[in-house]
Recover the amino acids of this structure.
């Protein structure tokens, strides 16, 4: 095997964009070249704002561990879901969004047809084996004209891409390390989720999957938390 083959096994080549639906684009391998740097940048973020298992308004503890960086962070507690400028665990502002995060999200959005995307929020999800995310819509952002950009790192996951109703049967597809999805247009409001993570070992993240979810959230000082 020649050197190029060894490298290509570790770092998949970026693939041509694949349309997943109205406004949704899968960019396989788009973040592969920067994956190491993205994971390295997580160290200082999680030192200041550690991963935690949030509680839903219904009182369930989420299996996915979360933290945030940027001007706004998505939080959940018994009072509801919302974006908050401060980490409720520390009372401090969320760590700044690293430039490489912001710029990669902007480049991905542009590749998906959404020029001018400037994320002010990055939700960082950590999946351990068996962690899952049940079907839901992302509707706490206030402005739905901006897309959501998601970057997968580490262990692969089965992503569930449903329709506009929770009862619509979801399509399943595998998201691997370095894959990026831009969710805009009509699919911005689609139901989606993640199947329970299979155990494994990633050279990048060890035994976990990390997902970075970039959003443009409207910060309204006293927005009412949603209950759904
Ligand atoms: C499809 N996270 O944090 S990101 C979430 O892999 C979330 O951690 C998943 O769903 C994860 O809310 C998926 C991809 C994603 C984000 C927003 C969407 C897919 C979407 C909005 C509409 C449709
Ligand atoms: Fe979501």
């Amino acid at each position: 095997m020649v050197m190029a083959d060894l490298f290509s096994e570790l770092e998949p080549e970026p693939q041509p964009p694949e349309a997943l639906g109205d406004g949704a684009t899968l960019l396989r391998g788009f973040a592969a070249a920067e994956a190491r740097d993205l994971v390295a940048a997580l160290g200082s973020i999680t030192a200041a704002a550690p991963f935690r298992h949030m509680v839903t308004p219904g009182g369930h503890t989420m299996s996915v561990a979360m933290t945030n960086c940027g001007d706004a962070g998505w939080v959940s507690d018994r009072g509801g879901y919302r974006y908050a400028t401060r980490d409720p665990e520390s009372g401090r502002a969320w760590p700044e969004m690293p430039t490489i995060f912001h710029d990669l999200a902007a480049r991905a959005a542009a590749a998906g047809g959404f020029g001018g995307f400037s994320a002010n929020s990055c939700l960082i999800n950590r999946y351990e084996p068996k962690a899952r995310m049940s079907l839901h819509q992302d509707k706490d952002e206030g402005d739905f004209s901006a897309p959501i950009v998601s970057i997968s790192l580490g262990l692969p996951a089965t992503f569930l891409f449903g329709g506009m109703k929770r009862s619509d049967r979801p399509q399943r597809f595998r998201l691997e390390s370095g894959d990026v999805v831009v969710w805009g247009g009509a699919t911005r409001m689609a139901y989606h989720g993640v199947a329970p993570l299979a155990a494994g070992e990633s050279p990048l993240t060890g035994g976990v999957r990390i997902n970075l979810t970039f959003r443009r959230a409207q910060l309204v000082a006293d927005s009412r938390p949603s209950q759904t």
Residues 79 and 222 are 13 Å apart (CA to CA). Residues 136, 138, 192 surround fe (iii) ion (ligand 2) (CB under 6 Å).
